[in-house]
Write a structure and sequence with these properties.
By secondary structure, the chain is α+β, with helices and mostly antiparallel strands. 52% of the residues lie in helices and 9% in strands. It starts with 5 loop residues before the first helix and ends with a helix.
């Protein structure tokens, strides 16, 4: 088993960064090849690696050239030969003009090798083609060329990313990865599903911000599991720690895989709505016996996010949307701003709500489901102390198909709350002010700003939240009194 040298990694990273200096993905790849197994790149054409600055002579590998490499070279070689003949050159003439041997040109055209980086540009000039056409082995219209260039590089980057992950997990956990799939869920983290020689696991990278506390997750999940809440088991690395750090300083952990499916926003079947209400009530009740976590949404949250501050933030976000040409987003932001300018803040006593240790991000995509049962609740990184009603109504509006257009079915929601109340308690103030508090939360939360600020590949989730929040604002503006009336009635019945 052999490695790429550090110098190779630095050169490749520099080349990638030069290609897209403002791209975070490329910037973060510095030094990645210094710990990369050459064997983990069986499908990456060697010429493609050359094209991003990797000197293949640095790769110490003990594998034969793969079939994909061979076919890649054959196609490129055939293309070189046809373009040479089209220009009316012999192999000897090309060799003389480039200062190389005729044997080298013949080797290229037979598919037994590819030009070194230093020879690509001179060869392309002689043949009247681009470097990208040379590597792809075909003539391309300009727009097709740009598309294929981007796709080729994206695929290469992904392969290298996965190869790096394979090495990292083997080094830190002794797990030999055989398959990698990236999760499409999770706006605040990057998550991979991996199959290994010792079973299936999940690798989760944490976004470093004030809301994430991965250092709490191991003990919290252990406590929940001991108290009957289905959660994933986080495993320790070889050093005995539940959190690992990669060569770029990014933190991540590995947890056991929970078999099942995950429903997307507004896809919850009836049984899942019922079971989620029960589970949330159980979680809030069980966590009362856990040491107090840091506060999340509290009095300070609303003090810092006034209508005026939100409008100021929206102005910045609107400018960014216009600069990016995101017309639809710009229109929604303008609509939100118009609504906020007319809105009067609701006055409620945050101290009057029931606070408890909570999941912090209890949402439909965090539930792994089996046959009409919840197999596991994952992602406890944001666990904190919230008003429990915030987590209750938030789950409902993102999970229920009846809320897909940003409208709440009041009767159905009251039934949902009743199920929750069979496993946890709410005081009258909770019920009477639940709608108003969440209305205010939606109004002062600039999800469009989060969408633009997010560095994760799944930031589209913030966009979905932002669009839903815009619709909810309109609904709340017309129906908040009706919702409050029904929840107050439920409070009176409970007493």
């Amino acid at each position: 088993m052999s490695l790429l040298t550090p110098d190779a990694g630095q050169v490749a990273a520099a080349a990638l960064a030069a290609r897209a200096p403002g791209n975070v993905i490329f910037q973060e790849m510095k030094g990645f090849l210094n710990c990369l197994l050459a064997e983990e790149l069986p499908t990456v054409p060697l010429a493609a690696l050359r094209n991003i600055g990797v000197n293949i002579n640095w790769i110490k590998y003990n594998r034969t050239i793969s079939r994909s490499d061979y076919m890649y070279q054959k196609k490129t070689g055939s293309f070189i030969g046809s373009m040479r003949r089209e220009k009316g050159y012999t192999q000897n003439q090309i060799a003389e003009m480039m200062g190389i041997s005729e044997k080298t040109v013949s080797k290229w055209e037979c598919g037994n090798g590819l030009p070194e980086v230093s020879l690509m540009l001179p060869l392309c000039d002689l043949l009247g083609i681009s470097v990208n056409e040379l590597l792809l082995g075909e003539r391309l219209p300009l727009f097709d060329m740009m598309d294929k260039m981007g796709n080729t590089m994206d695929k290469l980057v992904k392969q290298v990313e996965y190869a790096q992950l394979k090495y990292r997990i083997y080094k830190q956990y002794g797990l030999d990865i055989t398959e990698i799939n990236e999760s499409k869920f999770g706006a605040g983290s990057i998550t991979y599903f991996i199959k290994t020689d010792k079973g299936e696991y999940v690798v989760k990278y944490f976004t470093e911000n004030s809301m994430n506390h991965p250092e709490n997750e191991f003990n919290l999940c252990l406590f929940l599991s001991q108290n009957g809440i289905p959660v994933s088991k986080i495993i320790n690395n070889r050093a005995g720690d539940p959190i690992s750090v990669d060569e770029n300083g990014r933190r991540y952990h590995v947890q056991e895989f929970i078999d099942g499916i995950t429903y997307d926003y507004h896809e919850a079947p009836v049984w899942l709505m019922e079971e989620s209400a029960k589970l949330l009530g159980k979680i809030h009740t069980v966590l009362k016996d856990y040491p107090p976590l840091l506060y999340g949404i509290d009095k300070q949250f609303f003090q810092n996010r006034t209508i005026g501050n939100t409008l100021h933030g929206y102005e910045k976000t609107l400018h960014q949307a216009i600069e990016n040409g995101d017309t639809e987003i710009a229109l929604r932001i303008k609509s939100n701003m118009y609504f906020l300018k007319k809105m009067q803040p609701y006055l409620f006593d945050m101290d009057g709500f029931t606070y408890a240790n909570t999941h912090g991000d209890f949402i439909i995509t965090q539930l792994i489901c089996g046959e009409e049962r919840i197999n596991g609740c994952i992602d406890w990184t944001t666990s904190c102390k919230h008003p429990v009603i915030w987590e209750l109504i938030r789950f409902y509006v993102y999970a229920s198909p009846k809320c897909s257009e940003g409208k709440i079915d009041i009767e159905d929601f009251v039934s949902y709350v009743k199920i929750y109340l069979s496993h946890a308690k709410l005081n009258p103030y909770d019920l009477e002010n639940m709608g108003r508090m969440f209305f205010q939360f939606c109004a002062v939360s600039n999800f469009y700003g989060q969408y633009y600020a997010s560095p994760t590949r799944n930031r589209r989730i913030f966009l979905a939240q932002a669009n839903l929040s815009s619709k909810l604002l309109e609904w709340f503006g017309e129906n908040i009194d009706r919702l409050t009336k029904e929840l107050t009635r439920l409070s009176l019945k409970q007493n």
